[in-house]
Amino acid sequence: MNKLLATLIAGLFATSVYAQTQAHSTSSTGAPASTATTQAPAANTGMTPAAGTTVVGTDQTSGASGTAGTAAASTGDAKADKEIAKANEKESKEIAKQDEKISKATNKATEKKAKAQHKANKKIADANDKVTKADPEDKAKASAKAEKKIAEANADAHETMIKADEKAQKKIVDANADKAKAQNKAAEKTAKAVAEAHKDAAK
User: What is the DSSP string of 152-176?
Assistant: First the structure.
């Protein structure tokens, strides 16, 4: 009887230890907290930009421009190759044109933002200068007045910067859309030329 009781107790103890071990193993080997660091985000946008397009708010391009048709090898058909070359050239010109628009929009926004910051800095400097020159008994009043002017200067500058970025981003989005259309058109013409070459070869 004692032997049977001892066996049951030992069995229960073993089961308890196994359950605790499994629980500990699950909690310590689950999804690591550093999972996010093992994947490089695409410009913090949550998506990978299309090749040859510019990320909104920047002047950086993603991938090589004009990749839609340039990767196609010679078809062995002179007419088809000529059509492909023509499509690629047209695509490259359109992408260069849109890249120039993006560059101009970005530079204009940067210039406006720099001017806004310079204007704010001047207002802030003037406000602080008045505090410095104020008589001791007027310091507190001058300081309060300066704080208000500084806050207004910073707010005005920030608003100007937001508008400059917004305007530039709209132009960048439009330019990227035109680049994508040009790439798609080149890819379509290339595919048609290749298909035509294959059709002629099959005759």
Answer: HHHHHHHHHHHHHHHHHHHHHHHHH
